[in-house]
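User: My instructor asked us to take a sequence, write out its structure as tokens, and then describe one feature of it. I'm not sure where to start. Here is the sequence I was given:
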Amino acid sequence: MTITRTFSTREVAQMWNVSESTIKRWADSGELCCLRTPGGHRRFHLEDISGFQKTRGFEATGFLTTEKWEEPEIEESLNRKRFDKVQQLMFYLASQNQGKRVKDLLERLYMRGIGIVDLYDDVLLPVIESSEQALEKGELTLAHKKLVKNNLDEAMALLFPQLIRRRQSGKTGLCAAPDCSSRIPVNAISRILETEGWDCLNLGGNVPFDAMAEMVEHEPVNLVCVIASNQEHLVYEKFQSLSKVANDYRIPIVLAGPGFADPEILQQFPHDEYFSDFRSFQSYILRLS
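Assistant: Let's start with the prediction itself. The structure tokens for your sequence are:
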């Protein structure tokens, strides 16, 4: 059973650079939601903290004295949004199997106004790229590279239920990858859709194009998202089944990931849009919504 972290009155006061009495006043007036412990102490959920910040138009830029980071200057780096320092710490924590600490760091970023798209584009994906480079240089084993990716994805899975989401749009997206290396980007696309109010059929990785086509045939899908980290399984003849059924039902197909980055490869696969980053994908979803 996963225990969701809550924050004390003192921690919230430190993050917002206000007095504890101010936090108590906001909580007691109902402006800031909180729960009470059996001892009567106020505790605050991340979702409620973020929602209050969004309403008031500020970020959690204060220094949390309860956080003992491995990098002493990390709080300042978080405030200045110096992602290089954050990436280095994230890489270290993930490689040391410190999944909870990775999640705590993601929480702090989110409370500073770094949304899910920026978390992926500016932090998580660069860390994954660093692990790939470290593997190529012989500075990291294959097992440790997988450990890094697993800890990053699991940390996001723990954080995701606490993120603010838009009202349900009534639309459904299908996300899948033909290769087995795209779990994190597939999950990223799925989570972005959900935060924007979409339902998502996340098929994961190593999914044949025929299986994607079957899902489109049987489910009321409004968008098909195909993600590829490499070109290994990108065979046009196999893609045709998905392209045909999507065309028959007038469902747009969007492509993402480095597997489709080569213009010659991209030209072979009929699609409506290609996205090299998650920001552009989110902008596209906002237009559709």
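For the description part of your assignment, you could build on this observation: The two ends are 34 Å apart (CA to CA). Try explaining in your own words what that tells you about the chain.
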